[in-house]
Specification:
The chain is of the alpha+beta class. It contains four helices and four strands; from the N terminus they run αβββααβα. The model has no long low-confidence stretch (mean pLDDT 83).
Length: 118
């Protein structure tokens, strides 16, 4: 399946679940060089986002586009979610149609290391 078809299929499933009003997402975008991770609340608003181009991530990894940087972004996202103590019953990992492999998997593992459950 193409990435766009997978993305559309996932978005349709999220829309079906949004009738419950408790679905929040951690959404990943991966380009050839960088990654962006966003927390989207149940109303569809982006509450927090991080990129591999952020200075904090670049200082820790010294390279902004590898698996280590993706893992650091995931840990930072998980730390933010724990700090906010959001009353969410469900957080979904939205891989945005990308294959769950490499940098995308590193982001998910980083968020899980911080104690967030998908």
């Amino acid at each position: 399946m193409s990435r766009q078809r997978v993305k559309n299929k996932f978005n349709a499933a999220v829309k079906r679940q949004q009738n419950h009003k408790d679905v929040s997402r951690v959404k990943v975008f991966r380009s050839n060089k960088h990654m962006t991770v966003m927390f989207i609340d149940n109303e569809g608003a982006c509450r927090f986002s991080m990129k591999t181009t952020d200075e904090k991530i670049l200082k820790k990894t010294k390279v902004g586009s590898n698996i280590k940087a993706a893992s650091e972004i995931g840990k930072a996202m998980g730390a933010w979610l724990n700090k906010e103590k959001l009353d969410q019953t469900k957080v979904i990992f939205d891989r945005n149609g990308f294959i769950y492999h490499g940098r995308v998997k590193a982001v998910a593992d980083g968020v899980r290391e911080a104690g967030v459950k998908f």
